[in-house]
């Protein structure tokens, strides 16, 4: 079970600060990050590799949560970041990321995005498809430049997770298919072109994965192919990038493996294969997103109206909802929440915690056992740090929430709450 910290007044605390005070100071809905937790996760990932004594590179998958302050934190933590669009690239650079530490991903990068990546000297481009090989070649030729690339492969492995966030299976829009020979063709093409320096291969099998089996299987399969390609093309990969996808705890039913242990199991599998095949040990790269920020984030909401129908059910409505966290509605994702003023108060009701959006599907937590609530109470929804804010919308013209970082007993606003004015800024009357 996860620990629910409280202060001397019995209030739920985030990074040592009173959640009720945070709600008062910054308003609700607000997403609060405990920076120490983010740093701790990064340190654990590093420790896993250090203990295994291998070459590695950690790239934070910033699609999980990005803001200038987050990129700044990542830059100062000494790891890289992956970006998947011109927008993420722009923000990463503005946030102070070293372009050489960036990996550029995406299954349909535009010419403009590739030009931007090349012009800003992005460290690595993860090439996804044949169209991109040609497009990138054109861009590099025009600018008389070269690029360090990895080939994204679809290893044909099914990760046990939600269909929408499973990406490694053969029927996937991402990457060169391994089985059908597409991958070897892509390798042949890129090796033959001096504009490309092929560092290695990449696969990402999915997200919110608890089992190590899929990663181990992917690692072994890619090593087998690399070994065959060494014979055939005299190509030795420097890098084996196994993507992200490490699962986190949303509810007490989730029991994720410590990320340090996760890393060690993957590295061991690659080491074993490297010995078996007599293949030089590649550097192992990973791209964790959710596991870096997910559990560090908490959404604070204020309770408003309620509805009770005898024998049917109860609804407790809060001032946010599917606009700031689409995951329950989109994936059926489950969360836990606590009553900020007294997380240990006895269970007094079974109610769905719902949002303020004009949709019946706007349910944050369905049929939840919860203490007694009154209008004005603050509810803290836990583990909302990943794929919440970044997937937020202005549906119903609700402004996006504020983001606050808490560290060393201090809170600082890192993203302002949107205003009504912000929401009409691009509109022309
Ligand atoms: N690398 C690649 C190539 C990816 O596509 C992803 C996530 C990651 C790394 C990071 O995966 P993570 O460590 O965060 O699991 N919106 C969904 C998740 C989509 C994941 C997309 N790709 C959700 O809310 O569950």
């Amino acid at each position: 079970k996860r620990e629910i910290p409280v202060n001397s007044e019995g209030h739920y605390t985030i990074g040592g600060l009173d959640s009720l005070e945070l709600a008062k100071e910054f308003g609700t809905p607000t997403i609060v990050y405990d920076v120490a937790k983010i740093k701790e996760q990064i340190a654990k990932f590093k420790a896993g590799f250090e203990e295994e004594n291998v070459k590695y590179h950690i790239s934070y998958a910033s699609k999980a949560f990005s803001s200038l302050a987050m990129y700044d934190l990542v830059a100062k933590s000494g790891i890289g970041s992956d970006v998947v669009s011109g927008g993420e690239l722009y923000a990463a650079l503005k946030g102070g990321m070293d372009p050489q530490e960036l990996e550029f991903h995406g299954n349909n990068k535009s010419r403009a995005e590739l030009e931007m990546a090349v012009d800003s000297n992005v460290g690595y481009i993860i090439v996804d498809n044949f169209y991109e090989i040609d497009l990138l070649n054109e861009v590099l030729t025009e600018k008389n430049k070269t690029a360090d690339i990895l080939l994204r492969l679809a290893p044909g492995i099914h990760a046990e997770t939600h269909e929408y966030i499973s990406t490694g299976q053969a029927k996937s829009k991402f990457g060169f298919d391994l089985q059908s020979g597409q991958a070897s063709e892509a390798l042949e093409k890129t090796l033959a072109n001096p504009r490309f320096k092929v560092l290695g291969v990449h696969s990402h099998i999915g997200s919110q994965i608890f089992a190590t089996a899929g990663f181990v299987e992917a690692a072994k399969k890619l090593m087998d192919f690399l070994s065959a390609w060494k014979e055939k093309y005299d190509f030795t990969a420097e890098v084996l990038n196994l993507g992200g996808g490490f699962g986190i705890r949303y509810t007490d039913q989730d029991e994720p493996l410590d990320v340090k242990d996760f890393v060690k199991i993957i590295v061991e599998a690659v080491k074993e294969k490297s010995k078996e095949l007599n293949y030089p040990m590649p550097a192992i790269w990973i791209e964790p997103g959710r596991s870096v920020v997910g559990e560090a984030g908490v959404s604070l909401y204020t309770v408003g109206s309620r509805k009770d129908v005898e024998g049917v059910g109860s609804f407790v409505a809060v001032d946010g909802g599917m606009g700031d966290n689409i995951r329950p509605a989109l994936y059926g994702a489950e969360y836990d929440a606590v009553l900020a003023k007294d997380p240990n108060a006895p269970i007094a009701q079974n109610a769905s915690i719902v949002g303020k959006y004009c949709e019946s599907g706007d349910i944050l937590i369905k049929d939840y056992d919860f203490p007694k609530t009154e209008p004005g109470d603050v509810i803290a929804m836990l583990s909302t740090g990943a794929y919440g804010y970044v997937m937020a919308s202005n549906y119903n013209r609700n402004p996006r929430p504020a983001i606050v970082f808490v560290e060393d007993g201090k809170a600082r606003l890192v993203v302002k709450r949107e205003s009504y004015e912000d929401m009409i800024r691009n509109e022309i009357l």
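The first strand starts at residue 13 and ends at 14. The chain has a mean pLDDT of 96.
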